[in-house]
Structure formats: structure tokens, C-alpha cells
Amino acid sequence: MADWGVVQAIAASFPEAEESTSYGKPAFKVKGKLFAWLSPDDSADGALAVRADADELALLIRTAPDRYFQTPHYHGYPILLVRLDRIGREELAERIEDAWLLRAPKRLVDDFVSEKS
């Protein structure tokens, strides 16, 4: 189980991640691009929104509907909604890292990947 504090700890660990807001909700950006934020969509009920690979989006939702979903507000966009009260820290960290990798500039991604190797 996670909450915004866990999201903050994970997201802030990525290079040049900045805590911000989006539509009045807490968010994280890298170089001005959103990668993780609390959804402002009322029907998302406090879910975390993260950028996702468009090819993996449907698979994640289909294989783990207890943790991942989309609302009509996000249909057509590569955005995955995460139920924070139903996801473990390790899996959440994977989703946030994937989101950061999708949004960060290539130089930052290359540096990050080379440091992890």
C-alpha cells in the first residue's frame, strides 16, 4: 500500500525530477514534462496518474485491473491510473521509473541507464 509520501520519495530520486502541481494537484515533472501526478479527474478517486508506454497500457490494465485502470478522461492518452491503496512500493517504483524514462530527455535517460548498469 502506498500514498503520496511514498510517491514523493520514489519520484524525487530520479535525476532532475521536480515536485510541482497540475490542475491544483501534486505532481512530478522532469524538464517541465509531467511523469507522475495525482489525477484531478473526480472519477479517478485519488489515483496516481503516470505516463505509460502506449503498447503496454492495455496489457497492464487487463492483467492487473485491481491496481491499474483508466477513466474516460484519459482514453486515447498513454496515461495509466494507479490505485495507491492496492500497489506495493516495488511495483509502484517500476511504474514511476517507466514514466520518468518516457518523459526525461535522452541525455538524462542515457546517463541514468549507464549508471544503473
The tally of beta strands, per DSSP, is 6
Distance between the termini: 29 Å
Helix content: 25-40%
Rg value: 13 Å
The chain-level mean pLDDT equals 96
Largest pleated sheet: 6 strands, antiparallel
Low-confidence runs of at least 5 consecutive residues: none
Structural class call reads alpha+beta
Count of DSSP-assigned helices:
4
Largest beta sheet: strand ordering: 1-2-3-4-6-5
In N-to-C order, the SSE pattern is HEEEEHEEHH
Tell the overall outline.
globular
Q: Tell me what portion of residues adopts beta-strand conformation.
A: 15-25%
Can you offer a commentary on this structure?
Helix content is 38%, strand content 24%. With 117 residues, it is of the alpha+beta class. It has a 6-stranded antiparallel sheet with strand order 1-2-3-4-6-5. The longest helix has 15 residues. It is globular, with a radius of gyration of 13 Å. The termini are far apart.
